[in-house]
Model the fold of this input.
Amino acid sequence: MIDKKPKTFAEWQQLRKSNPRLYYRSDTQNQILQDATALGKDAFYIRKSEDE
Done:
């Protein structure tokens, strides 16, 4: 699973719902961790700032 753009938590959740077997594979879980690290916590979970 090599994507150029890191996916967000919501995008990974769509995969979990549509293809759980792929989602729970170890290489997919490693990619999720890499995406979360690359994006940072706020961007990965798409948290809005308290000002919005």
User: Anything to note?
Assistant: The chain has one domain: 9-45.
